[in-house]
Amino acid sequence: MFLAISKRALLAGSMMLLANLFFSGAALAEQKETLGNWDVHYIAFNSTFITPEIAKHYSIIRSKYNGVINISVLDKADQTAQSAVLTGTARNLLGVSKKLTFKEVSEGEAIYYLAVLPFSDQETFRISVEINDGLEQQVLNFQHKFYVE
Description:
This protein is about 15% helix and about 50% strand. It is built from two helices and nine strands. The two termini are about 15 Å apart.
């Protein structure tokens, strides 16, 4: 039951972000790190959680073996969206590394970054993302386990 509730919360959270809405403090799926002058919000989820229309719009291939990493970089002081260059890698527990290619998406005042990550069932990744706006450089590190839906 808890797993089903978590999946619904994750789906709702990812759809809100893709629809240019930011997570509220009550969203269970939200993860945030304060890095330097930024609040960095991030989430990883299965690409099957998004609709075919949204996937097509963002050039994401929906597959039970594709994950999506979504990152927003906000100014810590006023919470405005920040433009930056994101580069990253995802390393599984066997040490196999995959390069993450982030695409910047701007919708109104919102800016977020999307990367697709192929995975195997129950594969855990240690994800490292370098965020650089030309003035400041920070590294976001987190871990996520993907499940085939």
